[in-house]
Amino acid sequence: MEQLVAPWRIEWVERDDSASAEADEGCVFCRLPERGDDRETLVVARSAHAFVLLNNYPYNPGHAMVIPYDHAGDYRALDDATLLDHARLKQRTFDAIEDALGPDAFNAGLNLGGPAGGSVADHLHTHVVPRWEGDTNFMPVVSGTKVIVEAVEETYDRVHEAFAAQSDATVTETGAVRVDFD
Ligand SMILES: [Zn+2]
């Protein structure tokens, strides 16, 4: 299966019809964290410069994306504060998914530029994909998207709970877990 070679090359698809209707109104990764309902939009955690969004069409349960708030497509253009914050939020995301879902391994990576496979090429996002031994054996590929056995809302709640249990974590008014770093 092609996805096994580069499992982070997964097209991110709009979550529902209302989101699709708004697709013309600018960058989805700029809009979703501004929507105000983090569970609905699947924003599960936030830091000072980045946020964690669960993929609505995940490769595996817990497939997340760590995304700087800044609308930037060039990783090399990120300032130091954003780079460090984004990296630390990735570490916290590994922790949260590990605690919530107990994967055997992770794939993590960036698609930079449209030809690399990214569907939102002008707003960079790091995919974090938990992997299990044998996870390719029971989940068939349908139209390029894996069939996921766990509803994404249930995954959201489990990962959210794991983030909330981390140090210096608080639940925000919009629902996501705010994490701060020393
Ligand atoms: Zn954007």
> Which sequence of strands runs across the widest sheet?
4-5-3-2-1-9-8
Main pleated sheet: 7 strands, mixed
Cofactors, ions and other ligands in the entry:
zinc ion
Number of strands: 9
The N- to C-terminal Cα distance equals 42 Å
Report the β-strand fraction as a percent range: 15-25%
CATH class: Alpha Beta
Count the helices. How many?
7
Q: What is the rounded Rg?
A: 15 Å
- The SSE order reads HHHHEEEHEEHEEHEE
Report on the architecture of this protein:
It comes from Halomarina ordinaria. InterPro entries: AP-4-A_phosphorylase, FHIT, HIT-like, HIT-like_sf. Keywords: Nucleotide-binding. The chain has 182 residues and is an alpha+beta fold. The chain has one domain: HIT family, subunit A, CATH 3.30.428.10. It has 7 helices and 9 strands; from the N terminus they run ααααβββαββαββαββ. It is globular, with a radius of gyration of 15 Å. The N and C termini lie far apart (42 Å). The N terminus is likely disordered. It binds zinc ion. The site of zinc ion has 5 residues, from α3.
How is the secondary structure organized here?
Layout: H1 2-5, H2 17-21, H3 28-31, H4 38-41, E1 43-46, E2 50-54, E3 64-68, H5 80-101, E4 105-110, E5 126-131, H6 135-138, E6 141-142, E7 145-146, H7 152-164, E8 169-171, E9 177-179
Parallel strand pairs: 1-9
Antiparallel strand pairs: 1-2, 2-3, 3-5, 4-5, 6-7, 8-9
Organism: Halomarina ordinaria
Motif (Histidine triad motif): 123-127
GO molecular function, one term: nucleotide binding
